[in-house]
Specification:
By secondary structure, this protein is an alpha+beta fold. It has three domains: 27-292, Histidine kinase-like ATPase, C-terminal domain (Heat Shock Protein 90, 2-Layer Sandwich); 310-381, Helicase, Ruva Protein, domain 3 (Orthogonal Bundle); 393-682, Ribosomal Protein S5, domain 2 (2-Layer Sandwich), CATH 3.30.230.10. It is 34% helix and 15% strand. The protein has helices spanning 3-11, 15-20, 27-33, 43-64, 107-112, 133-145, 196-205, 234-244, 271-279, 315-328, 333-339, 346-355, 369-381, 397-407, 465-472, 517-569, 573-587, 659-664, 668-672; strands at residues 70-77, 89-97, 149-154, 161-169, 174-183, 216-225, 249-253, 284-286, 289-292, 412-417, 421-423, 426-436, 447-452, 455-457, 492-500, 617-619. Strands 5-4-3-6-2-1-7-9-8 form a nine-stranded mixed beta sheet, with helices on both faces. Strand 11 (421-423) and strand 12 (426-436) form a beta hairpin. The N and C termini lie far apart (102 Å).
């Protein structure tokens, strides 16, 4: 053995030394080093993620408490005098809600521990799932500024509020309370004067009035961030959240200074659409404070928690469920199947017990792994009803159309809501909506708006199953241009929403939906339904325009024909002109079709066969350039150069004798020989 080899051998550690260096890793310590996994990978995104997590928690709490949500989002710039070249600043983000509040003993667990919450183990639709978000935002603020988060919560209307300052210990994944006092200051009085706009709003309309916030929670986090409007901003997140949650009211107080724009970001709502929305008493800007008012006065339907479906259980999970049931209930396998699963009746449970060699009295704890594997195979082969869908609260077709009409200025809107489907034994429901034409750009790729459980997804678009479903839909079949393997090109906005008891996100930051075949299939079917409605509308619009052009050709020559007949017959040209004009309008009656607000034909014509529009369609005729002239206007009266003479009393001359039968023939005969039926004009 050479000396070099001996040196290498001497420097190596033995098993005892290696074992001594091994220790537990705290989950908060792991995410503190890998905060990009949670959405805190740059200052601008960190600010957005903080607002997003707090808003999601507030909306969930209000809805679970049966309260119409009212949220105030305040962002304070703590370094307004910074240099223009500085790319980030220190902000204080505060979110106040009127929810049921939080009991004092749970504050440290909710805000000071990662992977702690009430939603992870429940099969019930909710925005939050993992128990990471708001505590991770507080951890990020502590890391970047050294400041603890401040929570003010009042669970009872006539009681004092609890004001707690706490910081997370990443080594132990536990909160350390710095300040704990009781106060009457809820909502915090300080927030009413953070900006000139907030002070003006408070004096005019009662901003953060204690009457509107009898109970609730206020969360303040200081962090290093970057505020900038445009795509992927706090403004866009709140705008899209308001579209998907019309039952909630949001008041947004932006910081006094915006960071310099480095990229050509544009918001979803154009300036024209924003002004139109304001005129319709929707989104308003009061002294720089943006208000997203409540659109409906009803909460989404209350969701119910369900048990797992046998089709979505894996063998290892089944073994663990049997152990847990034995430890808590000590019941039989027969009862276990009915109590721990949905859609398993007493008859089905008895049949399963018999097939695996057990009886209805066999204890769950006596089931060994081979028998459990047989039971697992029975789950796969037994025909069971799909899981119940009362655990879901979709947005709904009408609400999606109202949200798109409010946020996107277009000419045509369509929406579709699929029936609930199942992936891995978990129910989910897909909804889609599109907006076409109007002020939308014609030479750009379609805008894609993605939602999961009413929460906007602003990042990782290309990795999302919804984006892939849009790219795989054959939009050319509906009259749109589409590059191969990409989204369509044209004046189009596509909105897609997934509602589920457990959304399969691709990462902890919850920015994209995993690509399950069952999910993508339902998304494509919803998009195809919207596409068919759009294709029908485009064909109808083209037909109406074509008939309008035909009428223009008729009206161009009818006057000349009437004059020529007057010269031949000596009859008054005005009745001849009116009769020919009536024939022209009858032949081009499609140009006079009027559509109601749902896209249905308001005045159907007997000569035009119109397809009945599907439900879930809105057409804004004032925003349609191609249809601005339809229904066709009344033709201007024709001025005849020669004076009108009275019909002669005597019989006409022989030279014009053929005109007599035409004048006295039944109405159908002149119509058949009229100029309107000449092939050259058709």
């Amino acid at each position: 053995m050479t000396s070099a080899a001996k040196d290498v051998k001497r420097r190596g550690a033995n098993a005892e030394e290696m074992g001594a260096r091994q220790r537990d890793i705290s989950v908060s310590e792991f995410f503190a080093k890998n905060r990009h996994l949670l959405g805190f990978d740059n200052p601008r995104k960190a600010l957005l993620t903080t607002v997003k997590e707090a808003v999601d928690n507030s909306l969930d709490a209000c809805e679970e408490g049966g309260i119409l949500p009212e949220l105030a989002i305040v962002i304070e710039d703590l370094q307004p005098d910074r240099a223009a070249t500085v790319k980030s600043s220190r902000y204080r983000v505060t979110i106040v809600d009127n929810g049921p509040g939080i009991v004092r003993k749970q504050v440290e667990n909710i805000f000071g521990r990662l992977l702690y919450g009430s939603k992870f183990h429940r099969l019930k639709m909710s925005r939050g799932q993992q128990g990471i978000g708001i505590s991770a935002a507080g951890m990020y603020g502590l890391i970047t500024t050294g400041r603890p988060m401040t929570i003010v919560t009042r669970p009872k209307a006539n009681a004092l509020a609890h004001c707690i300052e706490l910081a997370m210990n990443t080594k132990t994944n536990r909160a350390e309370v710095i300040t704990d006092v009781e106060t009457q200051d809820f909502p915090p009085e300080r927030l009413r004067g953070v900006t000139l706009g907030a002070r003006a709003l408070a004096s005019e309309k009662g901003f953060l009035d204690a009457i509107e916030f009898p109970t609730g929670t206020s969360v303040s986090i200081e962090l290093e961030g970057r505020y900038q409007r445009g795509r992927g901003s706090v403004d866009e997140f709140l705008e899209l959240t308001a579209i998907a949650n019309p039952h909630a009211k949001f008041v947004f107080v932006p910081p006094s200074r915006e960071s310099a724009t480095e990229e050509d970001d544009v918001p979803l709502v154009t300036q024209g659409a924003a002004s139109a929305a304001s005129s319709a008493t929707t989104t308003t800007d009061t002294h720089g404070v943006i208000i997203f008012p409540r659109g409906v006065q009803d909460l989404p339907r209350e969701t119910q928690e369900i048990q797992p479906h046998p089709k979505g259980i894996e063998l290892g999970i089944l073994l663990q469920m049997l152990k847990d049931y034995e430890a808590t209930e000590k019941g039989s396998l027969f009862n276990f199947l009915q109590e721990r699963f949905c859609r398993v009746s007493a008859v089905t449970a008895a049949a399963m017990c018999k097939k695996v060699g057990a009886t209805t009295r066999t204890r769950a704890g006596d089931i060994d792994p081979p028998v459990a594997e047989k039971l697992f195979k029975e789950f796969e082969t037994t025909k069971l009803a799909p899981p119940p869908t009362d655990c879901l609260a979709p947005i709904g077709v009408r609400q999606m159309l109202a949200g798109m009409l409010k946020g996107v200025r277009a000419e045509f809107y369509a929406a579709s809501s699929r029936d609930a489907a199942v992936y891995r034994g978990r129910p989910f429901q897909i909804e889609a909506a599109i907006a076409f034409g109007g002020d939308l750009p014609c030479d750009e790729s379609a805008r894609v708006i993605r939602f999961a459980n009413r929460v906007p997804l602003l990042f990782q678009q290309s990795a999302c199953s919804s984006f892939k479903a849009i790219a795989e839909t054959a939009w050319k079949n509906y009259g749109l241009q589409q590059p191969r393997g990409n989204v369509p090109v044209g004046p189009l906005v596509v909105m897609i929403h997934m509602a589920s008891v457990w959304v399969p996100f691709t990462s902890e930051s919850k920015e994209a939906i995993a690509d399950y075949d069952e999910i993508r299939k339902e998304m494509k079917l919803a998009l195809m339904e919207c596409g068919r409605k759009l294709g029908t509308y485009l064909r109808k619009r083209l037909k109406m325009k074509r008939e309008s052009d035909r009428r223009d050709v008729f009206e161009r020559y009818i006057g000349e024909i009437a004059k020529a007949l007057h010269q031949i017959t000596g009859k008054n040209p005005k009745p001849i002109y009116d009769a020919l004009l009536l024939q022209a309008r009858a032949k081009t009656a499609v140009a006079d079709v009027e559509l109601d607000e749902d896209g249905r034909v308001r005045k159907p014509s007997a000569d035009a066969v119109e397809e009945e529009d599907d439900d879930g369609v809105i057409i804004v005729e004032g925003a349609i350039p191609a249809l601005s002239s339809t229904p066709a206007k009344q033709a201007a009266p024709v001025q005849f150069d020669e004076p009108v003479t009275k019909e002669p009393a005597r019989a006409p001359k022989k030279a014009v004798a053929p005109a007599a039968p035409v004048a006295h023939a039944p109405p159908k005969k002149p119509a058949k020989r009229s100029v309107a039926d000449t092939p050259s004009l058709f």
